[in-house]
Amino acid sequence: MIQLTTFLFIGAPEVVFILFIVVMVFGADKIPEIARGLGKGMRMLKDASSDIKTEITKSAEKQGINTDVTKDITKEIKKVKDDLEDFTGSISRDH
For residue 5, is it left (φ>0), alpha (ψ between -120 and 50) or beta? Predict the structure, then answer.
């Protein structure tokens, strides 16, 4: 059985169609430039969210709010995520 990967509820045929439209509208020579711009935009968004998180943490520590709770929760979430990936990895290998 062939299993198709979906990303944001978009299947492979939709991705191919979207790429076809992008090539038709912008041309093949503009695609690397567009991808580079999208990459820079995503990097700027990631950096901005990291800066906001750092500022919130500093502010919370300055106000005397215990941030160790969030670190413990993050650690537990990572543990559950790793366990889930181990479980789903064994299932997907069987197919």
Answer: beta
Q: What is the pLDDT of residues 17-69, one digit of tens each?
A: 988 998 899 888 888 898 899 899 999 999 999 999 899 888 888 888 877 77
How far is it, in rounded angstroms, from Cα 70 to Cα 74? 6
Cα–Cα distance measured from residue 89 to residue 6, given in angstroms and rounded to the nearest whole number: 17
- Global pTM? 0.49
- Provide the sign of the torsion angle of the four alpha carbons 42, 45, 51, 55, taken in this order: negative
Q: What is the longest distance spanned by two Cα atoms in the chain? A: 57
- Ranges of each domain in the chain: 1-64, 66-95
